[in-house]
Amino acid sequence: MLHRSARRPHFFYTTAPLPCPYLAGRMERKVVTELTGPEAETLHDRLSRAGFRRSHNIAYSPVCAGCQSCIPIRIDAARFMPDRTQRRVLRNNAGVTGTAVPARATAEQFALFQAYQRARHQDGDMAAMGFYDYRAMVEDTPITTGLIEFRDASGRLLGGCLTDWLSDGLSAVYSFFDPALEKQSLGTFAVLWLVQRAAEMGLPYVYLGYWVPQSRKMAYKARFRPSEILTGGLWRPLEALDTMQEPVLAPAQSR
């Protein structure tokens, strides 16, 4: 008698080309798959280590023809040492408290999210999100997710970071903060907070998504050292690239 596995097949799909959000004049395509069912957590873990990111209940990775500018990057939390600029960020935010809360959308969060989008990404798709869109982004997930809320001494919400809990680390999904406090570098502070929390939990990594050296708004991720990047199917120390020319960093041809 033949044994048939009860596990359903898992499908991956490729999206249609769309304008690249990071590099002007280029198009992007993604390979995507649904995170659903009792194995969603395990699948998300495996895909994160393979360089995928999560949005809602979808995991995705760029597969752009002729371009390898999006490089998965993760911080070595146990060995991380803040540089002089990052130490200054920590001092400037000494009165800010980070608290992990359940992934539940609130009107307070959404108001801050809207202000951030209007100030920083007015032309982006997320600027048009209503409260129910925001709630779906926060709550529509089959895996372990939470929000880190950052508040000052008076309890005022200054920023938030949607974060996934993985078996080997924390993954920063999306962060936002009060645009009036840009000089406090709350985005950097949020990453530093995640690194400290991961180290306290005995988790080796903080996943930052994609490092895009040619994109000003994505290049900052390389400032967190030591870090690892995924190239050629292997996680390698980012520091090793400082003394060598790596083809993956070269600009891709326009298309």
Automatic annotation (TrEMBL):
It is found in: Cytoplasm. GO terms for molecular function: arginyl-tRNA--protein transferase activity. Residues 19-88 form the N-end aminoacyl transferase N-terminal domain. Its EC number is 2.3.2.29. It catalyses: N-terminal L-glutamyl-[protein] + L-leucyl-tRNA(Leu) = N-terminal L-leucyl-L-glutamyl-[protein] + tRNA(Leu) + H(+); N-terminal L-aspartyl-[protein] + L-leucyl-tRNA(Leu) = N-terminal L-leucyl-L-aspartyl-[protein] + tRNA(Leu) + H(+). SUPFAM superfamilies: Acyl-CoA N-acyltransferases (Nat) (SSF55729). The keyword Acyltransferase applies. InterPro entries: Acyl_CoA_acyltransferase, Asp_Glu_LeuTrfase, N-end_Aminoacyl_Trfase, N-end_Aminoacyl_Trfase_C, N-end_Aminoacyl_Trfase_N. Pfam families: ATE_C (PF04377), ATE_N (PF04376). It is an enzyme of class 2 (transferase). Residues 108-230 form the N-end rule aminoacyl transferase C-terminal domain. Keywords: Acyltransferase, Cytoplasm, Transferase. Its main location: cytoplasm. Belongs to the R-transferase family. Bpt subfamily. Functions in the N-end rule pathway of protein degradation where it conjugates Leu from its aminoacyl-tRNA to the N-termini of proteins containing an N-terminal aspartate or glutamate. This is Aspartate/glutamate leucyltransferase. The lineage of its organism: Bacteria, Pseudomonadati, Pseudomonadota, Alphaproteobacteria, Acetobacterales. The gene is bpt.
